[in-house]
Amino acid sequence: xxxxxxxxxxxxxxxxxxxxxxxxxxxxxxxxxxxxxxxxxxxxxxxxxxxxxxxxxxxxxxx
Length: 63
Description:
Blueprint: H1 2-22, E1 28-33, E2 36-41, H2 42-61
Protein name: DUF2905 domain-containing protein
InterPro entries: DUF2905
Keywords: Membrane, Transmembrane, Transmembrane helix
């Protein structure tokens, strides 16, 4: 279980570093009207979902 937490931590650090350098993805939408701003991170949500699915799939294979 300890190895799993170490691997998950390393993966999250790598994702965080990549996310910091990339910034917003092309599929993220921002709508501005007057003093109101609405940000809808569609591609970011899809990317996070795919990454989490892969991580959970890998974890379930090692159990």
